[in-house]
C-alpha cells in the first residue's frame, strides 16, 4: 500500500515549539504484530495488520482502516479541514459533534473482515500473529481485551470471523477458532491464567449488581472488575455460567472449562451469590438499600416456546432447554422438533440415552438454521432427520406420549423473509415415539425481577433500552444479552456485556456522559475484498483437529486441539488484510500510545533536529506567532 496517504500534520498551537513535535516519526511495525484496542487518555487506538513497517510524519489517532494491498489506490476520507495558520476559528470551521460522532474511528474503506464480523471485534489478526511468534501469553492478553472467555468460545463459538475470512475466498478460511482454543488452553492451568491489569485499584469503585450469570453477565462483571468496581453476580442456579453451564452439552463444552474461566473472575474479586432469585428472594430496592449503585440485568432466554398443539402436556414431552438441563435417561424412541443448534444439541444428548432419535424440522435439509458442522456431527452420532414437516398433533394414551402426527410444510418464510409457514393439512404422517423434545425457540422469563421498576418490556419479551448504552427507562438499570436482542450466540452476549460494563462505569461515576468519546461498536466495516491484490501467500491447507474415537458418544469432547506445529502452519495462512490510518484531528503528538502499548508495536524515532525558542525569546516569539495568525484570520 502506498504510504502517501499519511501526510504531514502541522499541529495547531501558539507555541513556536510545534516544529519540535514534527521532528518525530510515528512508526507502526508488524514485528510485534497488531493489537487489540488500547484505551488511553486522548482517545481510542485500534491496530490492524500491515505487512511491513510504516513511518509517517503525522500525529493522529491510529485507527483500523485501509487494505494492505489493493488493485486500485485508496483515498482516505478526511475530517473537516482545520486551518493551522489561524488564531481564531470561525463557525464555519467548527465540528460541533466532535466528541460524539465517532463514525470516522474506523474509516469507510474498512478493516479486516474477521475483526469486523466478530461481535466483540477481537483483534484476530493480532493474536494470530502473536501465536505465530510463539508468544502465547501475549496472544491470550489480546483476546481477553475483548473476550474474557476464549477457552469457552474456542469450543462453542459461532465463528463469525471464519465466515468472512479473506483466505476463504482462495481456499479455506483460517482455523481461527481452533487457534484460539490452543491459546486458551493456558487458562485451564492455574499457573498460566491471565489476570488483566486493573485500570483502578481493585475494589476501589462502586458496588454494582450483575443479575444473571450467563455469558453477558459474566462478561460485564469481568470488565467492571477491571475498572476496579465491587461486583456481585446474582444467579438463581446453583452454579454460575447460564446456558454455558446448563444449556450446552458436556461433549461440546466440558463444565470444568466453564468453571476454570469463571475462577478468573473470582481471582479478580468478583463475588458470586448463587441460588438467589432476584425479584423473589431479594428485590432491586433492597439491593439499592444495600448500597448497589447500578444494575446489569442479563438473565438470558432460558424459557422454551410451546408448540401450541393438542397433546403437548402429555408425559414424555420436554421443552428443549429443560431437557438439556435435566438430560433424563431411558428415553426409548425420541423425536426432536426443531432445526436450530439447540435442537441438534437435544438430538445428540438424546441419542446417547435412547433407542433411536429423529430430528423433525420445517426447513429442508440444506436450509437448516443449525450449523452444518453440528448437523454432520449429529448424523455421525446416529441421529436421523426428517425435514420439511411440522407438528400437527401429539398422540397420547393414559397421559403418556405414544406418537406424533406431522403435516407437510410447503413454505417456512414468505417473500420478504418473515417466518410464515404454510402447510398441506391433508398430507400427514405419523411417527411412533416415547419421548418428544420441543426446541423451536426460547423466551425470556422475567418473573418479578422488574416489579416496581420503570423498565419497559416489549411485546416480544425483550427489554426496551438504548441501542448504544443499553440503559433502560430506569436510569440505574442496564440490560444486555438475550434479554435485549432475543436469543443469540454466546459471543454476541459477551460483546454486549463489555458494552454494559462501559456504560455502568460511566454511570456510577457521576457527571460522566454515557456517550461522549465512545466508539460505536457497529462502526466497523469490511474492507473492499474486490479491491484486494493477493500477492504471494502460504499454500498450506487448513489444519484439522484429530478426533479421539475413545470419547465417541460419551459426555467428553471428542475433538482434540491443534498441536503447536499445526498452530504455526495455520497462523502462517493469515493474509493480514488490514492496515492503519491516523486521525490527525484527535492526536496531539504526545507519544503516550508508545508507553501504553504492551506489545511494542508503536515507536517514536527521530526524523530531523529542530529547535524552538529559548526561554528568553519565548514571549517575543509567541507575540510574533499571534500577530501572524491574527492577520491570517482577518484576511479570511
Structural category is: alpha/beta
Give the number of DSSP strands: 22
Provide the residue-averaged pLDDT.
83
First and last CA, distance: 37 Å
Shape verdict: globular
Q: What strand order characterises the main sheet?
A: 8-7-6-9-20
Number of helices: 19
Give me the Rg, rounded: 28 Å
Please state roughly what percent of the residues sit in beta strands, choosing from under 5%, 5-15%, 15-25%, 25-35%, 35-45% or over 45%.
15-25%
Helix content: 25-40%
Major sheet summary line: 5 strands, parallel
Q: Provide the low-confidence segments as ranges.
A: 1-24, 28-68
Written overview of the protein:
The chain has 636 residues and is of the alpha/beta class. It has 19 helices and 22 strands. The strands form 7 sheets. Strands 8-7-6-9-20 form a 5-stranded parallel sheet, covered by helices on one side. The protein has a 5-stranded parallel sheet with strand order 11-18-12-13-14. Helix 5 packs antiparallel against helix 7, helix 8 runs parallel beside helix 16 and helix 13 packs parallel to helix 14. It is globular, with a radius of gyration of 28 Å. The N terminus is likely disordered.
List the main descriptive attributes of the protein structure presented here:
636 residues, alpha/beta, 5-stranded parallel beta sheet, globular
Short summary:
This protein is α/β, with parallel strands linked by helices and 636 residues long. Helices cover 26% and strands 18% of the residues. Helix 3 crosses helix 7 (176-184) and helix 5 (150-156) packs antiparallel against helix 7.
